[in-house]
User: Fold this.
Amino acid sequence: MNKCALCGSEAKLELSHILPKFFFRYLKKSSPTGNIRSTSNPNRIIQDGEKVPFLCGECEDLFSRWETSFANNIFYPYEKGEKSQFSYNSDLSKFLASLSFRCLKLAYTQDRLENIDENQVPYVSKALDNLANYLLGNNPHPKEQRQFLVLLDTAESHSGYVGGIKESEFNLYATRAIEYDVVANDIAIFIYIKFLKFLVLCPVYIQSQKGWRSCRVNHRGGILKPSSIELNDYVLHRMINGARKAINSRESISGRQSDIIKKNLNEQQPEKLANSPIAQAILKSKA
Ligand SMILES: [Zn+2]
Assistant:
């Protein structure tokens, strides 16, 4: 018996996905090779996300209701290009807060916050409290831990480069990568969750509201659409770094693995390749 990470009750914990399974399932289904590779060890094919004993059955059910609402109303329609404007209700803020909570709590309990100063750690525990109380319904509002959602698409630059990275490579990252991180610098700590064409941000501590106004999700509901956005330099930096890491990791794939990838690609029907979001990301870019 262990303690549930959200409600704290002693229970037999379920093996929970830190990021929902349908992200990975969709990535795999829409990938021409039908496989997913993890960035940290690109030679190992991963089919699923990270799973840890985390939540009790009740909290798992709570999260899965918001997950289903997001999957059906926003995720699939946007990924498939069927819709780009969405009216949402309170489920969206809850779902995003549940993602932020899972990522921050895991980083906190597994000591993955090595980039955070000791005197900044109290901000992390306070943010976890705010998120948990909001998710459990003890607070109607997540307080400082409001959720931000950016709808991503392929970027088109005049130079063919984005932040020093080939536009096609950047677009591949922007539309396909799945990763999460707790980012810290002198003026901000925030949760960064990137999955396919979505970027979720949640401030843990920010010195100023600058760059944190657009893309804010209202906890009651509202309209979501791709629009001109103002993002902080440190958020854009994190994206560029993520894209760079993905390129390096692809380059480090061993010869044998790269033969397997080529073989899988060769066996695919050309239409499936051209219609896959990866191919479209590359075709649409000028690089
Ligand atoms: Zn629980």
Observations:
- The longest strand covers residues 198-206.
- Residues 4, 6-7, 9, 55-56, 58-59 surround zinc ion (CB under 6 Å).
- Residues 7 and 136 are 7 Å apart (CA to CA).
- The mean pLDDT is 86.
